[in-house]
Amino acid sequence: MILFYIDRKAIFCLLILICLNNYCQCISESDFFIYKDGIELSKEDDTHSEQIILSPEITFITTKYESVYINTNGFLSFLLPIAYFFPQITLTSYSGYAIIAPFWADIDTSIKNGSITYKYTKEEHLLKKAKELIQEGFPRSTNFEPTSILICTWTDVHSFLNKDDKKNTFQVAVVSDGTQTFSIFMYAKLEFVSAYSPAKLGREDRYAEAGFTDGTAQQTVVLPGSGGEAGINLAKESNIGKPGVWIYLIGDRRRYGRFRITPAGSEDDVEEILSPVESHYSSNIYQHLPQNSYREHATSPSTTTIPPDAIECKSCSRNARCENQGNGYCCRCLFPYLGSGLRCERAENYPVVGKINGTINGQQIDVELQGYVYIEDGRIHNSLYNMPLIHSNFQQLLPLFNTINWLFGTIHRFSDPIDNGFALTGGVLNRSALIRTFEVDNTTEQSILTIEQYFRGIESGVLHVETYINGSLPHPEGNLSVTVGNNNIKYIKRSLGHYDAKSLTSYSLISKLDTNSTITYNMSYEIEDSLTFYECPHNPHRSPKEIVVSNQDSHIYHSIEDTTIRFFTVTKIGTQAPKFDPCDSSPCHGFAQCIPNFEQNTHECKCNSGFLGDGVRRCDDINECIQSPCHSNAICTNTYGNFTCECKRNYIGNGFFCKPINDEIETCTTKICPQFSTCIQDPHTRHARCLCKEGWQMTDDHENHINGNYKSICKPKQCNEYYNCDTNANCVINENTQKYECICKPGFYGDGYSCTAHFCSSDGDCGYNAHCLPDEQRPGFSKCVCDPGYLNDGTTFSTCVKDVVSCNIENKCHVNAQCIYNERIDRHVCLCRTGYKGDGITCRHEHSCLENATICSSSAACVYDPILQDNVCSCRDGFVGDGIHCSETLGGPKEQFLIVNQGQTILKVPLTASGSTNNGDNRILYVPRMRAVGISVDCQQQFIYFTETSGKTIQRMKYDGTDQKIVLDGLGSPEGIAIDWVSRLVFWTDSSLKRLEVAKLDGSLRKILLDKNIQNPRGIAVNPELGYIFWTDWNRQNPRIERANMDGSERKILVSDKLGLPNGLYYDHHRRELCWGDAKMKTIECVRDDGSNRRVILTDQTTMIFGLTDGLQYAYWTDWSTNKIGRIDKTPNRTPESILLPPGGNGKLYGLIAVKDSCPTDVNNVCGENNDCTTGQLCLPNLSLRAKRVCQCADNAGLQCLLRERPPPPPPQLA
Question: Is there a single domain that holds both residue 205 and residue 230?
């Protein structure tokens, strides 16, 4: 009995431990990097550490640093400490500071027992742990062997004022091997994300931020939830599958100048990031030539022809064009390239490298120069290597970089528009300089230095410069340092391609003899500079007469440990020296402008037009549409910071004034387009025009004209230029015309662009107004023949139309028909437009109920639709559907949970009434380096099917992740996937092979359905009840959403206007509508399955939709801008919500699916067990046929199946 009690007690304790473990999956302090003898920051508000020397130096983004500071407020800063908390300075304010921020908030360690400790070390057990963690997030970083680690831990720290007694504990580790640098953030406890600091600038503190920045917009990365309430989830989420742990690659000197911060689990793996980049430019064979020589490896200019007298243009860069200046020709760089025309380079940030040779103070020098320039804000970093203590006087070599400042300085606001030196030269020029250095109060004793520099231009993304230097520099005793104030240098144009400058700059040379003795020397440079470069003689006014270079905020550091001197300068250029600008030190909000008051040295931050706020902390978008600024017959749409006005249907104008469209304006309702073209109507002007389909071109019809008036027709391009032949045709040359033509293969008939085998077995295989009759040309075969009085070939792929007078002579076509030339019968005929049926003289909508209202559901009415210009069925209030089928608004299968693809993981997202998730084990699949994209479910057998683009496979597993297997392999790049749970088929899109395919659910009998005129297929959905497949094509030139039967026939474009990047797609079986998410238009929209009744569910300018799925009441989507799941009620005028992801995933979100409690009911299986398909054939639904299905051989079925598809030959005739 006692033993039984003990067993029960042990089991009970074990269950408690399991529950506790499931409840909190966060890491604890025991999971941190544990170290002894750490240095503790003083317990006070707003302080920082001493300068921490890094040896070897580390690479952060694109710059190498030899020191760093730990700051109280949750971040590390390079170059300078930032102790005080400024609410205006944020990661995204692009302040110019280089920062690593695990949790940047207003932290105060003077409260209670909070502490901040740090240690810079090379201890093996810490390096080993760091390597193991990094390889979890970056599996291919097997060669990474860390040599140093900087660890800083914030333990039980409080927010400023400690209003709620909440505490945070977190840690950052910066790990380097001297080449690559990784950052590891760990969060054990986050109880606050914001505080209120009335004593600090009198405003509410911002939310905490986490991320990285070099101070520019181009290199700023923030963690999910940074800057908002969701920051609390940093302790619950992860990018390596360990809640509370985040790893990023933050530097790699092998990608110097072309690096980007990369999160663990990113689809960009480390090996791809480190692959070499091909240069866009030809090799520069510029050798060491005498001054004023500028020969470059010649390339052909971009212009196709060069005038015979344009001698100057024979050496144009490939990125330039030849322009006539009136008195001669010049090469002008094409946008976005800059340069002299002979040399044109992109306007980018560039590394600078080179050698410095010569003698200083009688000593031979051989110094390596490395630098980096930021063209956005004129920040210029330069370093001299191999600089031991005896060369500390080389800190006075700041004038060495004056020409780099001239090249890359940014234009200040007080200047007239001018080009900087890089825009004038492309980085190819020579410099000669004479520098006299002397004490201010002793001008007789001078040190003289001469400099010769040869800038060779950009090669492989790097600016190369050779420097020759001779002379002397002051060298007093002691440990030297140099400080330089702001200075201006005026360059004056002396002649073509020649600038001179004379300047006088003061600086302080400080000699520290010992701890108590320091001598400061007040020094001056007197500099004479001469720059020469190529300038076209026929455009001498392009370069300004004067260029004033202003060097500001210069800092010089000498690191004895790694023998490096570093120079930092911010350079502005202009036609005059810049004034003091109060806006420089007071950054405004990103959607605000700084208005300076130069008299009082103050400024004002004013929100941009379309925004409202204080200009510093807030600038909120104004909804201008509330004031009804548009015309009464226009629709107002609010956009971020603006609004648009668009005239309503049947009105024309600019939106501020709209008038009714008169009868003289031709629209697609009345315009007659030639065959193989589509009518496109401009949404603003309402004018219609005909656009030939892809692979065809508009031309005059010279064979058919009336009194010399030619009509336009669409003719196919030659198939050797654009392959547009049918799959059952060959592209061959016509011996008579010597042109390539499409010719149908033997056994097939048509024009080569559409080839069909005309045999049929019953009338059900034929179209309207046609019957299956014996083929006189092929005894034993039958073909579809139009009924008497009708013309065409009779197959289901075309329509038999009434035999009347050609409509180009007498147009009796219906308003919903087009007069189109038919090559097969050599006549213009009336054909009903897409979505309508009839003989062309009479056309009714596919769902027309005018003649037979009984087709409507009992919960619908037959009403007139002005868009369709016909009577159609429309569900009554409280019901949804296409009018033929209506059901109650909230009836049908309901979603139980979501399944979402996130990089290497597939997650189960349980749902509650609030849309939040539970704390269970939600990761149902994790495969390293997997990228799961599309996802669908077999609701009958409860299997998940997903596409995996890395392995080029389609896989399946049960809802709990068990029974995983590969169903199909050897694909191109499978993306969208849809399951027909009734006919047991899987459909998918392949963006690499540009086609739609189908197979049985077990992976057998694979077949290509469509591979013509498909560019970028992605989303796909099915409607088994009507036998339709739908797909999106995000071709940027022609985005569209299409529909076809499940056998690939009767292809139809449903939506082609007002599309950007249609991605996710679903078919709502309950409402009987097709919905898609558009990543460019920022919308979710729906139409009926015939393309009518278009409506908008969501308009949100902050979202970027990829995957899309539907529940009974909600639509759900994956958002690439927030890396979250969104949802919105499908009824009109609802507000979107966010669903937080459970822990365990990492990487981008892709497809998702709502798993429901049952399958849609009342769907007839036309491909049941009693279908007449034989071995090797797929049964594909086609409800337009009498048989409701077709049997087609799979592509991998073999020759025997194809032979069985053909009717048997006739019996031999008896003699």
Answer: yes
Radius of gyration (C-alpha) of the chain in whole angstroms: 37
DSSP string, 32-97: SPP-SSPEEPPSSBS-BPPPEEEEEEEEEBTEEEEEEEEETTTEEESSS---S--TT--GGG--S-
**Number of domains, the chain:** 6
**What pLDDT is recorded for position 869?**
65
Burial of 196 (0-12, 13-18, 19+ CB in 10 A): middle
754 within some domain: no
Check whether residue 555 and residue 609 sit in a common domain.
no
Q: Check whether residue 248 and residue 376 sit in a common domain.
A: no
Are 446 and 436 in contact by the 8 Å Cβ rule? The answer is yes
- Residue type (1 letter), 137: G
Distance between CA atoms of residues 273 and 287, nearest Å: 32
Q: Do 596 and 645 belong to one domain?
A: no
Residue 861 domain-assigned? Answer: no
Domain limit, last residue, from 213, 243, 265: 265
> Rounded distance, CA 1112 to CA 1115, Å?
8
Read off the CATH number of the domain in which 370 is found: 2.40.155.10
Q: What is the DSSP letter of 132?
A: H
For residues 687 and 703, is the Cβ–Cβ distance under 8 A?
no
Considering the domain architecture, whether residues 555 and 656 belong to the same structural domain is answered as no
For residues 63 and 1031, give the distance between their C-alpha atoms in angstroms, rounded to a whole number: 46
pLDDT of 1112 = 82
Partnered with residue 976 across adjacent β-strands are: none
**Residue 3 pLDDT greater than 50, yes or no:** no
Residue bearing tokens 């992976």: 1003
Q: Is the pTM of this model over 0.85?
A: no
Q: Where is pLDDT greater, at 1066 or 389?
A: 1066
Instruction: Check whether residue 546 and residue 609 sit in a common domain.
Output: no
How confident is the model over 883-914, as pLDDT tens digits? 777 777 666 677 889 999 987 889 998 875 43
- 902 CB-near residues (< 8 Å, 6+ apart): 932, 1141, 1145, 1146, 1147, 1148, 1149, 1150
Of 1079, 1088, 1104, 929, the C-alpha closest to 1016 is 1079
- Residue position matching structure tokens 């391609």: 497
Residue 312 included in any domain: no
Q: Is the same domain home to 354 and 206?
A: no
Q: How many CB atoms lie within 10 A of CB 1068?
A: 20
pLDDT band at 277 (very low <50, low <70, confident <90, very high): very low
Compute CA distances 1113 → 11, 410, 895, 1077, 1154, whole Å.
42, 54, 9, 17, 11
The better pLDDT of the pair 768, 1048 is held by: 1048
Each residue's pLDDT tens digit, 72-91: 889 998 877 777 776 667 77
- pLDDT exceeds cutoff 90 at 502: yes
327 is a domain residue: no
Q: Which of 246, 265, 284 is at the close of a domain?
A: 265
Q: What is the CATH number of the domain that holds 940?
A: 2.120.10.30
Q: Is the peptide bond before 56 cis (omega within 30 degrees of 0)?
A: yes
Query: How distant, in Å, are the alpha carbons of 103, 834, 1087 from that of 1055?
Result: 47, 12, 9
Same domain? 1006 vs 1155? yes
* Domain that residue 740 falls in: 722-747
